[in-house]
Amino acid sequence: MNINGATIGHTGDTDLLTLASNLATVAGNITATGDITVTGNDITFGNGETISNGTDGDFLLTTDVTDGAFVLKNSNSTDGNSKIELVSEMQIMQETDMK
Length: 99
Known about the structure:
Layout: E1 2-4, E2 7-10, E3 13-20, E4 23-26, E5 42-44, E6 50-52, E7 60-62, H1 89-98
Antiparallel strand pairs: 1-2, 2-3, 3-4, 5-6, 6-7
């Protein structure tokens, strides 16, 4: 392990992790084998897209290009069907009352 001030790495790659005030920068990829919890409101990607829940109850996907698209892809090669289902608490309560 190689620690040089706020930079952590190893002999073959000395700048894997850089620490600053309220910020950790990883030079490379991160793999999580468990859950990821985001306590802030936004996830920003390097190409300008963001995922945000800045308004309680809303989920916002944004892109900074004029011809951007929302693509939902099912990676299951046996059926390949994807769907978006919009459900509200009121709808769930009404369906429950009907039974």
